[in-house]
Amino acid sequence: MDFGYPRPQLQRAQWTCLNGPWRFRYDDEQAFRRPDDIDHWPQQITVPYPPESRASGIADTGFHTVAWYQRDFDLKPGGDRVVLHFGAVDYAARVWVNGRLAATHEGGHTPFSADITDLLDPSGRQVVTLRAEDDPQDLTKPRGKQDWQLEPHSIWYPRTTGIWQTVWFERVPRTYIDKVRWTPRVEGFQIGFEARVRGDQPDDLMVEVQLSHGERLLARDRYQVIDGEVDRYIVLSDPGIDDFRNELLWSPERPTLLEARIRLLRGEQVIDEISSYTALRSVNILRDRFMLNGRPYVLRLVLDQGYWPETLLAAPGDEALKRDVELAKAMGFNGVRKHQKIEDPRYLYWADRLGLLVWEEMPSAYRFTRTAIKRLVREWTEAMDRDYSHPCIIVWVPFNESWGVPELTAVREQRHAVEALYHLTKTLDATRPVIGNDGWESSATDIIGIHDYDANTAHIRQRYGAEIPPEQLFDRRRPGGRVLTLDGYPHRGQPVMLTEFGGIAFEDKSEPGVKKVWGYTKADAAEEFAKLYEDLLHTIIHTALFSGFCYTQFADTYQEANGLLNADRTPKVPLERIRKVTTLSRTWIPGTL
């Protein structure tokens, strides 16, 4: 059960993983308020697998509102600090160390931590207790694909309660680097570097940053820490001609990472040292094309739900995350749209290192209330903050298919919510495109995403072919029964992408417990499945209107059997056959850029 370093862009040499056996119990009556109230732990759970999963050892998919966790660990207090980290706990968490409150957090997809130095027992025997509250039927929480019905239905899946990402702690110095942030600026061959220092704050602190590519030293700079922060641009020597520039630029075809060593110094004394990485990579929109490193780039994405049969939202381990990246690339895709899930940082690490683009999408709430929007904003900004520095992430998607804002055509407040999240996202990250609402009913957006599951290729050509006037496409044709753009937001020349299509269901290998097969189109044999995929891809790739696409979907997920792979990640047809179709090329029509 190897999960790798949980925070890949700020690594220290020493850390301790707390995954594994924990004491566990449900508290549906909410009878317990503090750890001391509990005198009996009837179950044991394997963290970080949620209790609904088989891998947890619990496998209880019923409705439960509160779950308690507890475990002991050995740690002798010393002269340094100790920080306890939780990768993700769904939904609201309270944490005690040795019976004293250490942290609270709300949001099921984002990390939190606590400095527990002053809570440690001098004996060296420590007890951590966590209470997770997660109302399974509360539709105002960002919950993504977690079903609110007892049994998964349609396109929704089993719920996830409590801990579902790595729990760990690390010793840090009394003064330590708490955060780093990287911002590439290819046009000036610059990399923005930000660092935050926490703990004791003496006056004479410096941060030294060393960037290298292999054996080649690119930069070594020192900056004064002022008010606990450093914020500078590191200017690299620009090689000039593209052949040399491309050696340092990151792309799926050449995922060049720049390794970073960061040291915190007091005078000449090194008091903290971490390793990190970044990349030179730019993404932007130029008229009707997506641009990667200043060049038009066709996005060939696959929709990825990020579920596993035995572990649900949690990954089985680091190797499983790496394998998913490798499989997407093996099928010819250059990116994935992580659907309704903020993925484990280790997945983003492998996407950075192996070269796979990622669209990050906020898990939806399903009611429109002030509480829902406040929760959405808080968790979305935390997710952006966590993942900002990953070069693989190229697009942010706050809303999908008007979920949580179902009356966009009629209710002004809901339109304001989408527009506000779009502009907030652009404010927090000015370097990436943002899709305000993917699928239809677009307003504020950098890309118009269309969801169309019609498997009839003649219909696709009729809707999106070159002979269709743009006003007919956006004002009259309504895939999914929805308008593509809202009044006041006509198409302004942004790229148009088919961001969901396909969904061909073919059950090659039954998953235990699945009672029905669901999909938008069904195939009865492997050859029919492959032929439908080939016909659809050939049509989409040769439709000049589209500057990218996202096929549904990567792998079967519970009752949905519309994956290119089975739920266990075995291919339904040979990977090379899928790759050959996915990577078909087309000649750009003159004047489209």
TrEMBL record:
One of its GO terms (molecular function) is hydrolase activity, hydrolyzing O-glycosyl compounds. Residues 288-581 form the Glycoside hydrolase family 2 catalytic domain. One of its GO terms (biological process) is carbohydrate metabolic process. Keywords: Hydrolase. Gene3D superfamilies: Galactose-binding domain-like, Glycosidases. Pfam families: Glyco_hydro_2_C (PF02836), Glyco_hydro_2_N2 (PF22666). Residues 67-140 form the Beta-mannosidase-like galactose-binding domain. InterPro entries: Beta-gal/glucu_dom_sf, Beta-mannosidase-like_N2, Galactose-bd-like_sf, GH, GH2_Domain-Containing, Glyco_hydro_2_cat. This is Glycoside hydrolase family 2.
